[in-house]
Amino acid sequence: MKELLSGFDEIFHRDPQTACFAPGRVNLIGEHTDYNGGHVFPCAINRGIYCAASRRKDSILQFYSESYPAAGVIGYHLDKLQLQGCWADYPASVIRAFAAFGYYPESGADFYFRSDLPEGAGLSSSAALEISAGIMLRELFSLAITPQELAVLGQFAENRFIGVNCGIMDQFASAMGKNRHAVLLDANTLSYRYAPLGEASIIIVNSGVRHSLASSAYNDRRRECERVRNMLNVAALCSLSREEFDSSSDKISDEICYRRARHAVYENQRTLDAEKALLSGDYEEFGKLMNASHISLRDDYEVSCSELDFLTETAQKIPGVYGSRMTGGGFGGCTVNLMEKGAVRLFTETIKESFETRYGRVPEIYTVTACNGAEIIEL
Ligand code: GLA
């Protein structure tokens, strides 16, 4: 907090008017289901993005991030907000999204960001950046916007202006998370409910393989699902039960598209089953569903990679580990691992050692707790 204030002062030579924290997220299960109108089951985590901000008297928007010191202060003009192909396009796009929804900032503003979330690791640093900028705008200009709306605006900014066709999960988790709970979100209706996480530990392992969502692979998967949706003539793939999907599978002419759609439909059911398992305290069952999710992402959806497969296979053999799977969009990034508290030490040692033996480097491991969605920090 001190660093945030002094950092703001150093760059902008005054005090910030307001500050906030927007968390990253880890998805426990329900991968690549959100844009198929299905369920996701993420939690916001106690790592994320801090932002301090102040209004300006003119129409200039300025952004500075401790993660990109060499880029310095990046400026935009409120009336002609042209993107510049750099990190600050994310918060700048949120301002464009606000304007597109009729929320006009009355003046320019200065923003200072600080992060303890690894980037490109599938823990939603982009969503946290968007939500933190959104909260700051809301505060600076007294805009009546709910956290759900902030999530929608963040997604809109990313889809429309950044060009990543992501679903709503990441922004929703960052805006709507709850302390010690996971949130089961129906991405079709945006209705949601919380489930207490209980005693199990959530450990994230970073494969160190940088994923690039903007790379065409994510958008390719969406297109493949969209093709099947058209072939089956349904409003959303995840509106189908497994049985309905199986009985209409002969209508899907393309084998790859068939496997993509099968993943989405089966993963949606696994997500609903996982919520039940968690509510009844059945971590063993929850873990089995996580493991099955990984296999499906590896074989049907084809968004895993050798490092993620190695990490999950190693984790699943460690006593006390309930389940392990890749988390987020894939093509690298992190695994999420659910285990008994007592297993954490052995898990950490085993994963570090075996990954280093195989890949010649030690992976970063984060112990996280589920936390509230984005919040104002009292100055
Ligand atoms: C990324 C997207 C989300 C979701 C996941 C895959 O994180 O931003 O909307 O589609 O991938 O589950």
Q: How large is the share of residues in beta strands?
A: 15-25%
User: Count of DSSP E strands?
Assistant: 13
From the N-terminal CA to the C-terminal CA, the straight-line distance is: 9 Å
Shape: globular
Rg on CA atoms, Å: 21 Å
Low-confidence stretches: none
Structural class: alpha+beta
Helix content: 40-55%
Q: Report the order of strands and helices.
A: HEEEEEHEHHHEEEHHHHHEEHEE
Number of helices: 11
Bound molecules: alpha-D-galactopyranose
Give structural notes.
- With 379 residues, the chain is α+β, with helices and mostly antiparallel strands.
- It is 41% helix and 21% strand.
- The protein is built from 11 helices and 13 strands.
- The strands form 3 sheets. The chain has a 6-stranded mixed sheet, sandwiched between helices. It has a 4-stranded antiparallel sheet with strand order 10-11-9-12.
- The model has no long low-confidence stretch (mean pLDDT 96).
- Bound molecules: alpha-D-galactopyranose.
- The site of alpha-D-galactopyranose has 10 residues, from helix 5.
Write the layout of secondary structure elements.
Elements: H1 2-12, E1 18-27, E2 39-40, E3 42-55, E4 60-65, E5 74-77, H2 89-100, E6 109-115, H3 125-140, H4 147-162, H5 169-176, E7 181-186, E8 192-196, E9 201-206, H6 216-232, H7 242-247, H8 255-279, H9 283-299, H10 306-316, E10 321-327, E11 334-339, H11 344-359, E12 364-368, E13 375-377
Helix pairs in contact: 2-3, 2-4, 3-4, 3-5, 4-5, 6-8, 8-9, 10-11
The structure holds alpha-D-galactopyranose.
Alpha-D-galactopyranose (GLA) binds at residues 31-32, 34-35, 166-167, 169-170, 328-329.
